[in-house]
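Notebook p. 47: complex prediction with S-adenosylmethionine.
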Amino acid sequence: MEGNMGTSYKLSSDANEMDRLATQHRMWCLLIGGLYPRQLQTSIEDLLLDESSSILDVGCGSGIWATEMAMRFPRSAVIGFDLTEQHYTGNLPNFKFIQGDLAHGLPQSFKGRFSVAHCRCVAQHVSDPQALVKEIAGCLKPGGILILSDGDWVAFDANKDLLVPFRWDPNVDEVTQANNEQGRSWYAGWLEMFERLTRSPKYQPVDTLVRESGQFSGIQYSRYFSPINWPGNDIEHGEEIGRIMNRNMREFFENGVTPMLNSGLSQKMIDIWRTKFEEAMDLHLYNVWHVTSARKNGHSAKL
Ligand SMILES: C[S@@+](CC[C@H](N)C(=O)[O-])C[C@H]1O[C@@H](n2cnc3c(N)ncnc32)[C@H](O)[C@@H]1O
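Predicted complex, structure tokens below:
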């Protein structure tokens, strides 16, 4: 393995968090048009028609994507890899979970074995995201497809203009800060703070990571806006996505209280932040999500 991917995962992996990720998975499917981006349908299905095909989900969490892929492609062998073992439902003969820490790389037995590799909302949590992408590339067959996706820590208003984040200043008392927000967004500020707490300083956008790995061709990138607690403007499935995001972000806030306390934020400030956060849920905002797909070099097929 090149570089050290380290174990610095700051979010919890308990049942509540897995529940939240399952709901978020539903939103991903609505956003991108299924388990993988609509535009990859033919390429993925062509690859997975082969009986010897296999699928890898790196940082699979609850395994919801991997097990749904196992149901969709019963002739493919699907492996979910994660730090934490969960309770996988379905008892599917073609799904297997392997526990491991990316800090030690992916198992040697994975090398050159997979037709499709998926890694969603994981790269920013390892200390060397570029090393992770190279490691996954090493597990794909030539011509195999990588889908690398991630959320982002910025927020947009109803016109999709980027919001300026409110910045918590540890040297100013809580009430003064709360009264001196100068029109900046608390929601964007909370996202930015969370980014500082949880994202690897070496992180780069998913398409950059894939391009700079030098291992892929046919790189495609899409970004998707998800409205929070409103249907958005011209967003397909906006109503359901808006409902899911309302629940998702509230749960995410609560799951993030411990990391916030650990970072030195006072309980009083967290309570103020929670009130402002609640208000933001009614402001017609968007979050954004990124998906990159590409084909491992060494094969002539196009995406
Ligand atoms: C935000 S969750 C995403 C889960 C899943 N991919 C999804 O989209 O629902 C990030 C996952 O990465 C896993 N993870 C983080 N660091 C890891 C590491 N060093 N080795 C293996 N898994 C790791 C976590 O255990 C967690 O399940």
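Notes: Residues 72 and 281 are 35 Å apart (CA to CA). Residues 15-296 form a domain with the Rossmann fold fold (CATH 3.40.50.150).
Next step: compare against the earlier run before touching the bench.
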